[in-house]
Amino acid sequence: MERKIVSPCVMIIFGGTGDLTHRKLIPALYNLFYEGNLPDSFAVVGVGRKDKNASEYKHELQASLEKYSRYKIKPEVWEQFSKKIQYYKMEITVSEHYEGLKVFLNEMDETLGTQGNRLYYLSVAPSFFEMITKNLAQYKMAENVDSWQRLIIEKPFGHNLETANYLNTEISKVFPQENIFRIDHYLGKEMLQNMLVIRFGNALFESFWNSRYIENIQITSSETVGVENRADYYEASGALRDMLQNHMLQLLALVAMEPPAAIDAKSIRDEKIKFLRTLSKNNAEIIKGNIVRGQYGEGKMGSKPALAYRSENGISPKSNTETFIAAKLIAGNFRWGNMPFYLRTGKRMKQKTTKVVIEFKSLPEILYFKEYNGMQPNLLEIRIQPSEGVSFSFNAKRPGTQNGITNVMMDFCQNCSLENNSPEAYERLIADALKNDQTLFTSWDEIEASWSFIDNIANIWRQEQPQFPNYAPDTYGPSDSDVLLTNNGHKWWNT
Amino acid sequence: MERKIVSPCVMIIFGGTGDLTHRKLIPALYNLFYEGNLPDSFAVVGVGRKDKNASEYKHELQASLEKYSRYKIKPEVWEQFSKKIQYYKMEITVSEHYEGLKVFLNEMDETLGTQGNRLYYLSVAPSFFEMITKNLAQYKMAENVDSWQRLIIEKPFGHNLETANYLNTEISKVFPQENIFRIDHYLGKEMLQNMLVIRFGNALFESFWNSRYIENIQITSSETVGVENRADYYEASGALRDMLQNHMLQLLALVAMEPPAAIDAKSIRDEKIKFLRTLSKNNAEIIKGNIVRGQYGEGKMGSKPALAYRSENGISPKSNTETFIAAKLIAGNFRWGNMPFYLRTGKRMKQKTTKVVIEFKSLPEILYFKEYNGMQPNLLEIRIQPSEGVSFSFNAKRPGTQNGITNVMMDFCQNCSLENNSPEAYERLIADALKNDQTLFTSWDEIEASWSFIDNIANIWRQEQPQFPNYAPDTYGPSDSDVLLTNNGHKWWNT
């Protein structure tokens, strides 16, 4: 495979001294470089308001790299890589500063042969998205004539359909849609990409991928951590906007969409959009009884005391922000009919895991085996993170018994062996943006469909006060989340 | 589960000093006793022509037990168990000796309270089956009045349909069909019993268990050993009668039969018979091109020299006995249509394994993934022995590639962990005979259907001389066996 990126370019990171740059972006670039995949003519410019020179900046990044790179840092490789790093000090709110940046970048083109190609990475608060793009337009830094300029935007993209729509309109005035890369780092995860291969590269899986064989599909993305140091952001977004609107719905779309006509960006997006639009069938009335929100109270994680959400640093003691959400959704199309999709995500939960569990229909109610006990439906589990793998649970004979049943599991673990060193999501995503491959990025139409569904939920919630806190740390969330399933004769498969 | 057998009984082993008794029968009885499953009133009588007393006999058995039991022998358990063992010297060809045996057994009834119940185990050459049963009849040792008498017969049951038919008629005059237990020790293997649970205890498996989803089914039972010390027997039977007629067809029937109405002996047998009768569709003309026979030549197993079959001790240097057979069979029923079942069995092969591989239909010929390579059909493999387990091979994304495909495997291994100590086939089978459960024994109708099919093959073979030897040791058999599959666009899945 040709993995090397040929198009020369300068990547500009707004928010170049931020956490994401240190933890994810620079390690991703280093790994791409280490594997020989970056273009020969390439540089990365960290943009920040802090006063520092390139050498100080590099020194800080090197320290982070030692911590976060999946490769051990080799001094000779770092030396070569660090030559590609620059720092540029400016205030992103001050329009005139963009002119200086432009001159700085143009000079790099001269030295490096980067030909005016730019990848702007907005690793800043969403409130700056519009301002930055407008300034890039004003100084003709995104003309897309004779060279290319692309924009990578981190989530959240808007706060609801209206604000997302406004933002989309504004940045579309500067960048054509095909040059806007809305990143959802979940889509860069190996097992999430694997979902397409598992579904469409295996005749058998696709054969039973519908409601005739499947009883329900459960998607869980749970964290053990609390709100950590993102109080402001989280208070405004909550689990609904932080997780459900993007990661969870994207994962759901990949699991539930129809087979695309081809494995390319447009075909896959078309199918995802088509699926996301089916969610509009879950109108206000239906949704009302099918969504559970939660907020963690005080308690313990293992043996360590854990604060209630409302007591966390920077959080209002009366906050009604949800740290947990569970939903039962219906697609109502030919493939899925009224089969429920159960989604849940939360903080301070018992396990850190992102996984999809497919529960197959049970046998007809026949007491087929003499010593009938422990019979369980067949489960296909696709683990996204931190464990990556696929397993299938089925009933087998308990050895030594007449016809006693036991539940056993076939397992494939992708990241169990030490040799495995899967690329990080950001490596794949940055490389794809440099290659102009939109497959793993979210299109505007997907964003639009997601928000109209999410707005429904937010509107309902506004009408009534939640009883928070309603779940203890180190649990699987509020009991209503279990009730949501038991009402349908189902249960969460937690292990 | 109630596993203890309650009905008191004396088990009489004709061939009590033979290899099977030492290696399998006594260890099986010891293990049943050790686990507390034998009846309180129970004894086993070894019948032999050699002159020895009970104490000598016990001593010999103890030595074998140390070698062959899956439990470590505890002296206090052995002491208790050995009290149940007796030896009886007689010539089985001398009618009058049966009278002595009868008296001996009746005396045991007095001492032990075994109430006249008998389990006669014929672990002798098949030529003695008729004679022994006739003598048992003559001395009214199988009256089945006020007490029960059952017969366990080891294979082979006849040499063809005619001789099997004759034998069946003769022993049926003495024992009612329901008291005749034709043993096929393969049916006692854990994973073979598991076949029923896997197929009918899992909604998903049964859903795709037909020719709409399955491309072909491959059943392999291969050995690495040569003919060993069974020259006389093997020269007369060959792989056709030694393996295909019984073990392989039984395994095939369990894999391919329709779901039985209940999990009981009669229902299961009915379905097996129904399936075995479909094999008559493979008439002489069809079979001709669909059967491959082989005989191993001289060569090496690993680095050790190995004799040709014709050079083995006791084998004719011009022998045309087959040590390998491969067959392509069609069931021609609704479930399987013209889907091929491929069966093969042989000696001196590369691997010791008994397994079933289910190859699913491939994807339509679409170049779905950009870096299409290494795409493989989905395979479900059920391993019977020596490894016991189930695995499923499927295509997944090769980590770190764009859309590169790799073939990965989910695996469940039943006997990988040291704790696992599955009962031996003979434990289960003897216990079932003592309990009067015929489920895992072969009915006359099954034998009849098997032989009529096997006779077809033998008849064709008689008409032409094979070109033997035609395969080297430590291989997968003659090249014609591969051609049999490649002619259909298939291949053996060897690993």
Question: What do these coordinates show?
Answer:
The structure is a homodimer of 495-residue chains. With 495 residues, chain A is of the alpha/beta class. Chain A folds into two domains: 9-154, NAD(P)-binding Rossmann-like Domain (Rossmann fold), CATH 3.40.50; 187-424 and 442-486, Dihydrodipicolinate Reductase, domain 2, CATH 3.30.360. The first copy, chain A, contains 14 helices and 16 strands. Chain A has helices at 19-34, 54-68, 75-82, 96-112, 129-138, 161-174, 190-200, 203-207, 231-256, 265-278, 284-288, 425-435, 444-462, 479-486, and strands at 9-14, 42-48, 85-89, 118-122, 149-153, 180-182, 214-222, 291-294, 299-301, 304-306, 324-330, 340-346, 353-360, 379-385, 389-397, 405-413. In chain A, helix 1 crosses helix 12. The longest helix of chain A has 26 residues, at 231-256. The two termini of chain A are 38 Å apart.
